[in-house]
Design goal:
This protein is α+β, with helices and mostly antiparallel strands. 22% of the residues lie in helices and 33% in strands. The radius of gyration is 24 Å and the shape is globular.
Length: 554
């Protein structure tokens, strides 16, 4: 998110460049320009009068390495029944009564059957095992063909899908590897020190952090951030002082905190990207790359993110790629195609959602910029954005291959935002997004207020425990919304994580007995997050914008 610091620059660019420089999310926003429909809206799939099956497949882990060959690998199969003409959906002739039956699924690489087995119709994330020993590692992904034969009812029907399998050679000594567990979207990484250790799930929590005049001039800040309990630092470019950049990254390796490396200003320059990737890729602290920073807002070329994505994978391949989108609905598939992790930065605290205090214009779906695109100025803007991203991901057939993160607002009292969030509001933003699918929390920006820093640190520390539920592929998930209380429930091994957040600026209560099986579990509970919440019997009592995390059934 860069607009807080470049609003004046955008205004100057608008004067110099003409109409093309005066849009955000494709919308005119200056008083001298008329409303014009921005275009780029996500197409709503047509409705089918008969059931459709949308076959999808993806490897369990991305990438696999030779170290994984001693155990069985796996492919994930989705076979949802839908009445929307989503990507890859084809008509299926289902029986009018009784069970729908099974599909016989085959996964092939280069014409060779890698995995085969029965999968239930309408299943999500079924696994078919296979051995990597029949494949030779290579730097480019294998093309995968998945097919499913349905012969339970009537004439046999065949459905197909395409995917890729990344099975890379062992990396050079010292280079880190970040794997994605596509059963959940979670990241798996070894300790950032590079001194060995097992892969562990990582739930990144941290800040886009000022580099020049901050990290670059005070290395002890890296130690402080680590001590506060954060798991990732996202330095904000430019990195003009390469000596200072190397020193910051080396200090991150020493203390053991992950790096999210940002190429926002250079990602459309292939020469610069090549230099940066080759410079950074061997750091054991590197967790992931970051390319487009609100490319939809600035209307970057529609193929920019995917072009850079392919380039990065040709140079590295051992770390996922991320970007953030700011617009609610502007060429979403085009920009998202070039990422493994799509983030959203819905900044709704302290805005006037109807009238731009910066440009003195109204804000509508086809005009104006109020700092939060198509927002209402309420917490639900975040959950709506997350849900829209998840729905589009399914429609595009990407639910098995792309994860979602969130960028909570950690700033204010500037530009469109008339105040900073409180620490409790920061936690509401974060937990609301987690309950709606976010697997990482990286806020714009640090340094921020002491209240936000303390609350973010508390959340990060709590996630060292809560991630064992949220990132657990065996966990079942249930979501409850009532009276603007948003509750996520993850259950595994007889225990349940309850993560409840109150979107009201008043006290509220959530009765766990309204969820089957939780009243008795609540009798034995441990609180792991307290941002204004407590458990009394089987009732969660929440303060104004309070949030609590509880493990039930210890």
């Amino acid at each position: 998110m860069a607009r807080v610091v470049i609003t004046a620059a955008l205004a100057l660019a608008a004067l110099l460049q003409g109409t093309a420089g005066q849009t955000w999310c494709g919308k005119n926003y200056m008083a001298s320009d008329p409303p014009v429909a921005p275009g780029g809206q996500f197409p709503i799939p047509a409705v089918s009068s008969q059931p459709l099956l949308a076959l999808r497949c993806a490897p369990v882990i991305k990438p696999y390495l030779p170290e994984d060959a001693s155990a069985l690998a796996g492919f994930l199969i989705d076979a949802p029944i839908t009445f929307s003409q989503v990507q890859g959906a084809a008509p299926i002739d289902l029986p009018t009564h009784g069970a729908s039956g099974e599909l016989l699924v085959t996964v092939k690489v280069n014409g060779h059957t890698l995995a085969e087995g029965p999968v239930a119709v309408n299943v999500s994330k079924a696994e078919l095992s296979f051995s990597l020993k029949s494949l030779k590692p290579q730097t480019t992904p294998f093309d995968v063909e998945c097919s499913a034969v349905y012969a339970t009812h009537g004439k046999p029907q065949t459905f197909t899908a395409k995917s890729t399998l990344s099975y890379l050679p062992s990396p050079p000594d010292g280079r880190s590897v970040t794997k994605m567990d596509l059963r959940t979207g979670a990241l798996l990484a070894k300790p950032a020190t590079g001194k060995g250790g097992a892969y562990e799930t990582v739930f990144p929590v941290g800040f886009y952090t000022n580099f020049g005049g901050y990290l670059a001039s005070n290395l002890s800040l890296v130690d402080e951030i680590k001590e506060q309990g954060f798991t990732v630092i996202h330095p904000i470019p430019t990195f003009d002082n390469l000596t200072a950049l190397v020193q910051v990254i080396e200090r991150m390796e020493q203390v053991g905190i992950y790096l999210m490396y940002d190429m926002r200003w250079t990602y459309m320059n292939s020469t610069a990207v090549t230099e940066e990737v080759n410079r950074i890729k061997n750091s054991p602290a590197l967790l992931l790359w970051y390319t487009g920073d609100e490319p939809d807002g600035t209307s970057d070329p529609l193929n920019a993110t995917s072009t850079t994505y392919d380039l990065i994978y040709s140079l590295d391949g051992y770390h996922p790629v991320s970007l953030v989108l700011n617009c609610e609905n502007y060429f979403w598939p085009e920009y998202t195609s070039g990422t493994d992790i799509v983030m959203q930065d819905t900044y709704m605290i302290g805005i006037n959602a109807q009238f731009s205090t910066v440009w003195n214009t109204s804000c509508t779906t086809d005009y104006g910029d109020c700092g939060c695109d198509n927002c209402k100025g309420e917490f639900e803007d975040i959950s709506t954005r997350m849900d829209e991203f998840a729905q589009r991901r399914f429609i595009e057939g990407w639910e098995l291959s792309k994860a979602m993160w969130t960028v909570p607002q950690g700033f204010g009292a500037d530009s469109y935002w008339d105040r900073e969030p409180t620490g409790k509001e920061f936690v509401v933003q974060s937990v609301l997004a987690i309950n709606h699918g976010a697997l990482g929390v990286v806020s714009w920006n640090a340094p921020t207020t002491a209240d936000i820093t303390a609350s973010a640190a508390q959340l990060s520390k709590s996630l060292t425990t809560m991630k064992d539920f949220i990132l657990n592929p065996k966990a079942t998930f249930e979501h409850v919304e009532t009276d603007r209380i948003d509750v996520g429930l993850w259950s595994a091994d007889g225990r349940t994580l309850v993560l409840a957040t109150n979107l009201n600026y008043a006290t509220a209560r959530f009765d766990l007995s309204s969820v089957r099986g939780l009243a008795l579990k609540a009798l034995v509970a441990r609180q792991v997050l307290d941002s204004g919440a407590k458990l009394q019997g089987h009732v969660v009592e929440l303060e104004s914008v309070g949030t609590g995390g509880f493990i039930l059934g210890i």
